[in-house]
Amino acid sequence: MATEPVRAGSAWLALREPADAEARSDELVGLLRPLLPPTASVVHDLGSGTGSTARWLAPRLAGTQHWVLHDRDAELLDLASAMPAPRSADGSEVTVETRLDDITRLAPGGLAGASLVTASALLDMFTTDELARFVAACAGVGCPVLVTLSVVGRVALTPGDPLDGRMGRAFDDHQRRTRPGGRLLGPDAVARAVASFREAGLRVVVRPSPWHLGPGSAALAAAWLDGWVGAAAEQDPGLHDHAAAYVRRRRAQLEAGALAVGVDHLDLLALPGRRAASTARAR
Description:
Blueprint: H1 10-23, H2 26-32, E1 40-46, H3 52-57, E2 64-71, H4 74-82, E3 94-100, E4 116-120, H5 128-139, E5 145-158, H6 164-175, E6 178-179, E7 182-183, H7 189-199, E8 202-208, E9 211-213, H8 218-235, H9 240-255, E10 260-272, H10 274-282
Parallel strand pairs: 1-2, 1-4, 2-3, 4-5
Antiparallel strand pairs: 5-10, 6-7, 8-10, 9-10
Helix pairs in contact: 5-7, 6-8, 8-9
């Protein structure tokens, strides 16, 4: 059993991509569309992985699009470059550029000219200082910012098990662990991000984007379960004696089609106000 939560390896990203696509808020895309240039957009995707956000969002937006994918994992960016580019909603061309970047330390001007900034499944991995730099970089461009699939620490497994609550609390504490550079925000990150964007003068709209995992997504549910329990047991050593049996019970329920897993996320759309737009023009 894993001793770390599932991280952003290429296999995990491929496994979760269909569930992510189903969960993301189409309502926020509807609010976003009128704010983009009618003919050509430049989209910067921070922590892009293999480009799943581009594959989901580009076909929902009209006009020519140029996507700039930022990630610090060269292997994931190579995979993104090798995949066919999507087409826009009206059939216009979508081009893709990759940049090997540490998105917590973007160079000045790294997002210059963006029509839209996106990120996905990212905020929980930030420290307070990293989140502040992320918000400042995004807000400084003066364009909309769409951040999807941020975990909030709410998980529901049906049917329930006496260990569910303890596992969930330990996992959330693991997400808030301290690493070099500071303490991770984990499930507190999205609330902090909303407050920070508002302090920067942006209007923020938040919508739910939950995973609903059942028999049709058993492989993803099993991988998520291994990571969830492994991280919980690492955080709370008292769970070690129970973790293996718990996973066996839950996997048996998955294989029988008798387990449903709900993992809550939130999507946020930050919209530039007058203050944010004037700051961006001043730069």
